[in-house]
Design a protein that fits this description.
This protein is globular. 68% of the residues lie in helices and 0% in strands. The chain is mainly alpha-helical.
């Protein structure tokens, strides 16, 4: 099971790849909606890539509920622990 820090790097890297930003620009308090104006297709792409990277089923509602990147990381940390 990845540590929270390892998971955070995967999440931040995935988000930056989809949005075309640098990993260093994506922080725990980054709001994808407020800071990047992310749309549903981009969010679905992030979710799909994270599912493949983590070998984990991620519900769309899980990602839409997260208000910032840190909450998404916390949620995925919980989901990976439940899956093991």
């Amino acid at each position: 099971m990845p540590t929270r820090e390892e998971l955070a790097l995967v999440v931040r890297t995935t988000i930056s790849d989809v949005l075309g930003t640098e990993v260093d620009e994506v922080h725990e308090r980054t709001s994808l909606l407020a800071d990047y104006g992310i749309d549903s297709l981009e969010l679905m792409e992030i979710g799909s890539r994270l599912e493949r990277a983590l070998a984990l089923r991620i519900e769309v509602e899980d990602l839409t509920r997260a208000e910032d990147v840190g909450q998404a990381i916390d949620l995925l940390t919980l989901r990976t622990a439940e899956a093991r």
